[in-house]
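Query structure, 378 tokens:
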């Protein structure tokens, strides 16, 4: 079976994990490996401040707390996303306002955002689906005009750019995931990017159980104490050591994924030209990270047959997401603004092909052959 995902593994990870335990004797949060990861991301992404977290979800939760929302405040987000985009804001009492996606990128439709803004709206959450950027110029302009914060859910967008800027560094906050299904991994983990320096102090406090421990370490206060809201959002240095091995070779991982993505694209483009499938649109101002290779079948029925066909030929393909606005919790905590023109219809026909670092040439050829065989017999 060609798996849909295999977590990235370069082989150097365990050396660093061992170093953390046996040499550094530092395995809690913010040890030497965490600092290396922070510095690397701040330099590479030209980010003001990056802090590792226990997950992409906890990075989103930190961002939601930093937005300082009151119950009833509204947050605009796509319905076509992972549940964490919603739970983070639901947890601080916000009302979720779902907006439709564009069918070509499956990203929040920037043209439908303004119609969803009310006098309770506080935040827009663009999700960079498949590591391809949302139309950020438009979104940032809307946010400025209506005085809103922007939290980029860049869980899938590490290393991708929009107009030369790294995803996660464009909004007020950016959130990355280093879950095993993402391009760079530490098992479970993530990071928050803080792009406005005014929020850095508070972010450090929220991440450290509501204490001013970071200021204490820097000698800025002579004892540390409980000062604000907070939780434990910092990950172990063991996990950071594992991630460090992958950040150190981030380009190697990125290039390898992009090669697989391009191979799929080159071989499946003829099917798209014939109108048998649809493929992702990559806007010219975007570079992506090959987080995902998706295609769209004609409808749900064809997709079901397609996934079954691939499985019989040893290829594991998957679909997602069940739109949040029609899910039990989505119905309770949010509403869909305007017409669901694409969210449900498009999510019903989207399929993702195997995509991971190190997918072999033989395996990616076998995936292409199976896809072509299905559409030849169809
Ligand atoms: C993976 C993902 C998350 C959550 O990240 P975790 O690290 O699994 O908590 C949030 N949003 C999106 C869009 C994701 O793909």
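Result returned for the query:
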């Amino acid at each position: 079976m060609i798996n849909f995902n295999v977590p990235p593994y370069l082989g150097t990870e365990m050396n660093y994990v061992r170093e953390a335990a046996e040499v550094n004797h530092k395995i809690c949060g913010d040890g030497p490996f965490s600092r290396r990861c922070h510095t690397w991301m701040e330099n590479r992404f030209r980010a003001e401040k990056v802090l590792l977290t226990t997950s992409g979800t906890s990075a989103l939760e930190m961002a939601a707390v930093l937005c300082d929302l009151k119950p009833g405040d509204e947050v605009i987000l796509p319905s076509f996303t992972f549940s964490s985009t919603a739970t983070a804001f639901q947890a601080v009492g916000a009302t979720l306002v779902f907006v439709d996606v564009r069918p070509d990128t499956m990203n929040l439709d920037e043209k439908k955002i303004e119609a969803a803004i009310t006098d309770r709206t506080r935040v827009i959450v663009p999700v960079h689906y498949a590591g391809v950027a949302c139309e950020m110029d438009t979104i940032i302009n809307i946010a400025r005009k209506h005085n809103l914060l922007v939290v980029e859910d860049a869980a899938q967008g590490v290393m991708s750019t929009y107009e030369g800027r790294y995803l996660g560094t464009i909004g007020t906050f950016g959130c990355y995931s280093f879950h095993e299904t993402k391009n760079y991994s530490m098992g479970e983990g993530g990071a928050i990017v803080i792009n406005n320096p005014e929020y850095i102090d508070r972010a450090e406090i929220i991440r450290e159980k509501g204490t001013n421990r970071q200021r204490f370490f820097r000698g800025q206060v002579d004892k540390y104490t409980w000062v604000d809201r907070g939780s434990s959002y910092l990950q172990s240095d063991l996990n950071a050591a594992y991630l460090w091995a992958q950040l150190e070779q981030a380009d190697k991982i990125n290039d390898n994924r992009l090669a697989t993505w391009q191979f799929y694209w080159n071989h499946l483009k003829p099917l798209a030209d014939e109108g048998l499938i649809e493929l992702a649109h990559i806007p010219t101002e975007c570079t992506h990270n090959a987080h995902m290779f998706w295609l769209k079948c004609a409808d749900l029925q064809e997709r079901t047959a397609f996934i079954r066909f691939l499985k019989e030929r040893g290829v594991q393909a998957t679909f997602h997401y069940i739109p949040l606005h029609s899910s039990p919790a989505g119905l309770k905590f949010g509403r869909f603004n305007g017409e669901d023109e694409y969210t449900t219809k498009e999510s019903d026909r989207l399929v993702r092909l195997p995509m991971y670092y190190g997918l072999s040439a033989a395996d990616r050829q076998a995936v292409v052959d199976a896809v072509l065989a299905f559409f030849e017999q169809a």
